[in-house]
Every structure is written in structure tokens, then in C-alpha cells.
Amino acid sequence: MRRRELITLLGGAAAWPLAARAQQSARMRIGVLLPVLDRGPEPNSRRQLFLAVLKEFGWTEGENLRIDYITWSASDADRLPERIAELLRLQPDVVLAGGTSTVAELIRQTRTVPVVFINVADPVRIGFIESLARPGGNLTGFTNFEYAMGGKWLQLLKEIKPDLTQTAVLQNPQHPSWAGYLQAIEAAARPTGIKVVPAGVHTPEDVDRAISECASMSTAGMIVLPDPAMGVLAGSIIGAAAQYRVTAVYPHIYFVKRGGLMSYGINADEQLVLAVGYIDRILRGAKPSDLPVQAATKLDLVINLKTANALGLAVPRILLARASELIE
After folding, report:
1. pLDDT at 26
2. Residue 71: which region, alpha, beta or left (left: phi > 0; alpha: psi -120 to 50)?
3. Is 221 in contact with 157 (CB distance < 8 Å)?
4. Is the CB of residue 164 less than 8 Å from the CB of residue 201?
5. Are residue 223 and residue 274 in the same domain, yes or no?
6. pLDDT (tens digit, 9 = 90+) per residue, 67-93?
7. Same domain for 47 and 107?
8. Which of 153, 169, 148 is nearest to 220 (CA)?
């Protein structure tokens, strides 16, 4: 992300004189609590972006700021309470937390430490906050997908596979948001007559079974719901979709970069940049309860043309024109 784009995302705060913003002399402490993929992309680039944006606001690690990074993965989710307790013992001034499961456990352990969250769907419905405009309590942040996104994924699947009559929905049944997405997909499918088949998966064997069953009908497709557990299974999902020649839509770009067909979802870098703006305000005295929760403003459509060709799909021109990125 170039400096000009960064400053645009930061908004008015980035226009403050840097010297004035750097007057904070006491060392503050940020806790970073983000899920990672067991075999996902190297996280260093996101860490570098995080540090660069903090510096735009006048915060430099090792000078006036200390950052404690705590990560966990879906394969060791049972350790999440322990990792959060470990972070809270360090007494951070604010915590950056990613993912619905992470925030749910944070709420269980603290109602006082300020938290800025990212990648959480419908925090009002889940009960994390009172309202988007006035979240109340110690939480604020940025949502990733509204449940209505489920209908958009179905629409994209239908556009790239016009003969679609059935779609499997791969999901982690233990994730608190899956039911909301599934309802949105079913509502969008009802007028079209498309049959929606939920497929709960936990292991590579579950994935193979679900996708092979999907492939038994040539007019079937697949939607993968957003969840760290699906990220851990990404290799198995992408491999099985290729093996059984299943047309699939994914929520995140990393699926497509690893060989998946098409993704439509938030720009993760934008959420991180915006979250830093809230972190800065909290470090300078703002209360999370006074900072409105905001929805994602940038959604990216990414298509892997090599995968489309392997599946024998002709990508409609309208999708090519709308794509944020084409992978060849």
C-alpha cells in the first residue's frame, strides 16, 4: 500500500502535524490478538503495514510504544482462553482483536480493557455491542461481512455457472456466524429454485466427502463461509474442488491465490489501517463506547483465470470488468 493511499485511508487524523502527534512521551502498550492460518501466508507484510500506519500517527515501537503479539490458530482453538489470559496479564492499554471467536472470549475475560476488533460479522446481533452508533462497553471496531453477503456469493456463483441448480455451503458449525450467512443464502436461493445444502466440515476427510458429494451433480456449485477453520482447511478445500471440478466462491483472496476460483470479500489491509486510527484515538484518551462501529467500505472481487480455464468455465465479461484483480 503506497503512502498516498495510506494517508487517504487514515483520513483527517493523518493530516495532523506529525510533530504534534508525536508529543506523547509515555510508552503505551498495544496487545495484538489475531488468528493465523496454520499454513497461511507469511504475516510479516501485515505486521509491517501495522507498524507503518502507527508511525503515521506518531507511534513508534520501542520508543513511545510497546506491542505484544499473541496469535492462535483454528487447529489449537482450545488454547485461545489461555492466550487471551496471557495477553491481559501484560496490562495492555488497548487490544486489537481479529475474529468473532477471539472477541467472544475477550468479552468473557474482560469488560474493562479497551478492544478494537476487526473481522467480526454483525456484532449487534451476536450481542457484542449495543448498537453500531453507540457500541457501549469496552468494544468498538470494524465489521467484515454483513450476512446479506451470502446472497452476493450465491449471485456470483450463478453468474459464473449459469446452469446452477444446487450449492453446497461449507461451514464450521461451531462458528457463531454461520447460521446468519446460511439464512441469507437460502433467502436469495428461494426465488431461483436453487437448492442449498449445508455441509459442516472439521477435517480434510470431511472436506473430501462434502465436495465429492457436491460434484455428483454437474449443475452444483459451492460457497465457502468465512471462518479461521476454513482457512486451516484451505489446501484441502482447494485441492478437492480442483480434483472433483467443482465451481466455488470463497470469502477471502488467499483462497484464490492458492488456486481457488473466485473470491469476494473485504480488503483486509483497509480494515487494519482503519483499526489503527481507532487505536490511536483510544491511546489518546477516547472511549471505545464513543467510537461507532463501522462496516467494510472496500470489497474486492478476485478471479483466478487459470482455474476457470481448468474447470472449462467462460468467465462473463461483466465479471472480468468488475474484478479488482485477475490472477493468470
Report:
1. 61
2. beta
3. yes
4. no
5. no
6. 999 877 666 778 889 999 999 999 999
7. yes
8. 169
Does this model's pTM top 0.85? no
The number of distinct structural domains making up the chain is 2
Question: What's the domain range around 226?
Answer: 149-265+300-327
Residue 311 and residue 183 share a domain: yes
- For residue 37, give Cα distances in angstroms to 174, 233, 249, 254: 18, 9, 19, 10
Contacts of 226 (CB under 8 A, 6+ apart): 119, 121, 144, 145, 177, 181, 251, 252, 265
pLDDT digits (tens, 9 = 90+) for 115-156: 999 988 889 888 899 999 999 999 999 998 788 899 999 999
- Residue 135 makes CB contacts below 8 A (sequence gap 6+) with 123, 128, 129, 288, 289, 291, 292, 293
Give yes or no: residues 16 and 130 share one domain.
Answer: yes
CATH of the domain at 153: 3.40.50.2300
Q: Do 182 and 84 fall into the same domain?
A: no
User: What pLDDT, in 10s, does the model give residues 29-76?
Assistant: 999 998 765 444 445 678 899 999 999 999 999 999 999 998 776 667
